[in-house]
Amino acid sequence: MECILTDLALEAQLNFESTAYAGWLNALVTGGITREDALENMANGWRFERQECITLWEEQHERAEKEAEEQEEHREAKKKKPKINDFDAGSVVANIIIPCPAQYAIQKIKSMEYVELWYFSPDGCHEASTTARSTLDSDDAYGFAKVDSTVALKTLASFKASHKVLQDHDLSWRQFDLAKTSFLIHIEKSGWLDKHQQALALFFTLITNHEHRMHPRSEKTLLHYAGFGFNIGLFNNALYSTISDDIWEAERNKGLRLVRFFLTFKESFKH
User: What is the DSSP letter of 229?
Assistant: First the structure.
């Protein structure tokens, strides 16, 4: 189909009395009609052809708009079409499966906010798994949460702090040791800067391999030290000693209270 390049509705009528159309006009007059009739015939012929072109232009314009709409709908449909991520066919399952902490802890990491290490311990991950299964059959409220570049519907309970959470210094040494490994893996998955990851990895290494670890109260002291919010770049031995003294004094006072209680209880049986 012929393509019309311009909208002829905007074109003015031609001047058929000009020199450019003299030959055509003279031929019509020579054929036996008057000059006025010849000019009218020429104008009518131009208007008829012009109207045909205008009709073709409108049809052509409508087709173009329809094609543009269809292309836009196709692009939108393609965007909404579920995409299957690529995978490595040669990869194998890891020797160790890292337990998954609660969404609450994951969101904290992605926001680079403080979160207790307990969430990454076996106890914390087990509690998250149990909670996730129980909420599937409950009537918990749902809310929207941004996960990577998409918005997902999640139970609000999955974003609440656990009432079972322990502060870092209240963890057992085994819980702390396992939790910090899981924590380091998840901050890497969340895209933390290498500088931050390396600083935390070094800090945990200094804590778990400290020369005083096997001394009395040392593990408790190290856990208290790890729970403080400060620059972790260098290990502060003076602060460590202060914490150790505070723990020793607290344990001594607790022991004295128990002794006084026992003596008082024993004296009460003598009377």
Answer: -
